Amino acid sequence: MISWIGKSLAASLLMSLLVLATAASAEVPGRRTHPLDQTWRFHQGDIDASTQPSADDQSWKSVRLPHTWNGADGEDGGGYVRGVGWYRTNFVAPSSGRRVWIEFDGAALQTEAFVNGRAVGRHDGGYARFRFDITDALRPGENTLAVRVDSRSTNVAPLGGDFTVFGGLYRPVRLIETAPLHIDLADFGGPGVVMTSQGVSAVSADLDLQARIANDGVQTARGLVRWRLLDAQGLEAMVLEAPFAVAAGAIRVVEEAGRLEAPRLWRGVSDPQLYTLETTVRDATGQVVDVVTLATGVRDFKVDPVQGAMLNGVATPMRGVNYFHAGRPGRGLAVQDWEIDQDFQIMSEMGSSALRFVHFQHPQHAYDLADELGLMVWTEAPLNGAVDASQAFSDNLAQQMTELIRQNRHHPSVVIWGLGNEVYATDDPANAAIARMQAVAKAEDPQRLTAYAHCCQDDLDRKALHADLTAYNRYFGWYDDDFARIGTWADERHARAPDRPMAVSEYGAGASVRHQQTPPIRPRPDGDWHPEQYQTDFHQAYWRELRQRPWLWSNFIWVGFDLASDGRNEGDRPGINDKGLVTYDRSVRKDAWYWYQANWSQTPMAHIVDRRMTSRPGATTAIRAFSNRPTLALQVNGVVVSAAEVVDHEAVWPDVQLKPGLNRIELTSEGVTLDTAWLSR
Fold first, then answer.
1. Domain housing 234
2. Are residues 458 and 475 in the same domain?
3. Which site in 236, 241, 419, 450 is 20 to 30 Å from 156, CA atoms measured?
4. Pair (469, 575) in one structural domain
5. Are residues 279 and 336 in the same domain?
């Protein structure tokens, strides 16, 4: 591994160019990929001459990707800015006779790219993968790539939302080179390969396979597409082939169908079986010119108005959190894969069976992890809060929905396409926007269900009925009413339309781990006092109601992790929505997180509640614990106090004697220590 720390920019650039040139010269059939993450120059603000190779960028900041010019809440030292940023880097052109593309995994919100001063493409949208063909702009030797990113709100979705929009190249960038005959790279950022399944059962599944073949050559090309479906052990489960002929400058969809016998079904967290789909293109001479490999799976998913979510014909409750990307303090969404891994470990340990990816398309690594861990996913396009009545906005919504589907339809974890969230207007433009999203989703993927997260109007307002499924964002006991209202509300809505499946897409309450109070006084949502204990009480009350209603096809907590929201000024600091079950820096799992772990996880656990109230007045105190064990024994300073029955995942010792100073509180079950905390008086 090469360490770049302490190297000069010139040395780093030279090494980057040498590595790229070496990779480009390798005689490897098919496509080649070259990361462009190491050495970039960045300037905050707009400079017209930035596109030109001769532009002086020596005063610009040296950065590596992923990068954003905004920290989470001003922690970058510059405050929150929505504006323009320029990025520049140099690279050596790959060998001639190849097509060369630049691929962005995400850049917010509008991106324009220039190679050697020539415009090569523009993309409107902050969260999907996109590519530009830069072949005709290249010259032999060194080339200059300049990228302008604009995070200001225009007619690009999202126009609203309770979250920070981080400007910049906040996901990786790479070059891809292909032969003139290749699997299409202009397929809305998708892989150019599709596998759909019908009639899925443990006996068989009917598969339809497609490959988009692009011919950038000067004459008609003929060849063969071969699909190999490999099981988890690498054994061939199915092989299909189809010949093709595609005219010069054209794209042809090549398709073949077959029956997969005795498929190994993707069964969620209980057994997330995956297949590998290898799609190979050979030219008329038999030479391999392109290969695309995808992880995929076979499963059946439906929603029943009585039994809820049905995975492969079995009622499988979708319970988990709303996941708002893997943002971190000071870096926003410019995170690494290992940080996404950390988030998924936390959500899996809690016992989640499903996730809602809000409120836009997430990085591919998140979908891959959901596949591998068996987490069912609702993923949505960024129609959020506000709507613009213009045709340009409508077209941008359609584009972003198409990108979401084409880039993610191979993931078995994705079971729901989300049309949008909390559009506040109820007028014709608002309904037209949601209706168009529904039309695009059903045209692109007729098999998957769609959902809309509704709020703030009548439960059966026409806006809530465009999608196949309706879900509701409900915060009784936080913004209004009392949290006991959640159960009666759900029954009332279910009675009004018993044949229309319903779910709870968001529920939650704010909490600061720095604010401790027992018993808690109900806080003001916009106030500066958000005691953790109120959030705990909220979630205990909610889950005890929601779990009794199996016809709720999903229940998603808002939110898994505290998140950046530049418009907020509440709780213990500005710029943060603190409804997460885990702190923004992932260092503390709040008590409510353990309440769900006690309810959802089978791994033996116990957690001492109110552990951050380390100082207790008086000689006695109450001790509470959440657990999934039948009984717990309490020890104080190494002495067994008593055993308590765990009733509905909670054990209580009302009067525990403490000595002056520090006291070690320990919980055991069947002789195994499950949790320890320190209290003082």
1. 193-296
2. yes
3. 450
4. yes
5. no
Which DSSP symbol is given to 616?
A: -
At which of 574, 603, 632 does a domain end?
A: 603
Number of Cβ atoms within 10 Å of the Cβ of 46: 12
Give the whole-angstrom CA distance, residue 633 versus residue 639: 10
Query: Is 397 in a helix, a strand, or coil?
Result: helix
- Supply the CATH number for residue 442's domain: 3.20.20.80
- Does the pLDDT value for residue 549 go beyond 90? yes
**At which residue do the structure tokens 């010139």 appear?**
10
Percent of the chain with pLDDT over 90: 88
Residue 265: its pLDDT value, please? 98
- Binned at pLDDT 50, 70 and 90, residue 660 comes out as very high
Indicate if 422 belongs to the active site: yes
pLDDT reported for residue 26: 34
In this predicted structure, the answer to whether residue 608 has a pLDDT above a threshold of 70 is: yes
**One domain for residues 498 and 440:** yes
| Token output for 493 | 């809505």
> Which residue in the list 177, 422, 444, 545 is annotated as catalytic?
422
Put simply, whether the predicted model's pTM sits higher than 0.90 gets the answer yes
| Residue where a domain terminates, one of 556, 575, 603 | 603
Closest CA to 314 of 324, 302, 326: 302
Whose CA is closest to 560, among 349, 321, 342? Answer: 321
234 class by beta-carbon count within 10 Å (0-12 exposed, 13-18 middle, 19+ buried): exposed
Distances (CA, A) of 86 to 63, 67, 114, 150, 151: 12, 12, 11, 9, 12
Do residues 501 and 542 share a domain? yes
